[in-house]
DNA sequence: ACATTAACAGGAA
DNA sequence: TTCCTGTTAATGT
């Protein structure tokens, strides 16, 4: 089943019962944590072709995080029974899942490494590059419609600092900055910026 | 040093 | 009108 979620709306909320495996057919969503104290932080941006929520599905637990559409997005819902059946019977499906989990793990280990070793400009570069992982998001284009404020939430830095860093990356010819839109010009160099 | 918050003005949607 | 961007000043670690 595919449903369209308008910009700013929740795709699912922390605490929800998990009945589906979710995928981004088209659009952009973020996985985030919003505390009752008002504190909020985002973890990953997921673009076209990205699947998520398999963790809670396999552990049979309530949703751990909020997922919010950053712009109008089409979300695919695969029923738990279907997911379970594929898991039990399809080797290609298991391989897909294994690759995805492996890539995610790599992504998060990388985040820790970058957090500790890189300056802010480079961290932003990695954060952007991670949203274009071809294995995790096979359908995404190199154009990212996202505000600088959202980038800040995803990268864990302030909006003003994002603005500064984007100009550094633009100067280096790695991205192009337009109103509400970011275009990746050189993904390979973005991936290793600052090394 | 370097990042953050706050504030504001100008421009886009 | 509301959202986004570019900038600066004050503040914090």
Structure report:
- With 195 residues, the protein is α+β, with helices and mostly antiparallel strands.
- It folds into two domains: 1-83, Jelly Rolls (Sandwich); 90-195, Winged helix-like DNA-binding domain superfamily/Winged helix DNA-binding domain (Arc Repressor Mutant, subunit A, Orthogonal Bundle).
- It is 41% helix and 29% strand.
- It has seven helices and nine strands; from the N terminus they run βββββαβαααβααββα.
- The strands form two sheets. Strands 1, 2, 3, 4, 5 and 6 form a six-stranded antiparallel β-sheet that branches.
- α3 runs antiparallel to α4 and α5 (148-155) packs across α6.
- The protein is globular, with a radius of gyration of 17 Å.
- The mean pLDDT is 94.
- The protein binds a DNA duplex (13 and 13 nucleotides) through residues 119-120, 147-149, 157-161, 163-164, 167, 177, 179-180.
Features:
about 200 residues, six-stranded antiparallel β-sheet, Jelly Rolls, alpha+beta, DNA-binding, 7 helices, 2 domains, about 40% helix, 9 strands, Arc Repressor Mutant, subunit A, three-stranded antiparallel β-sheet
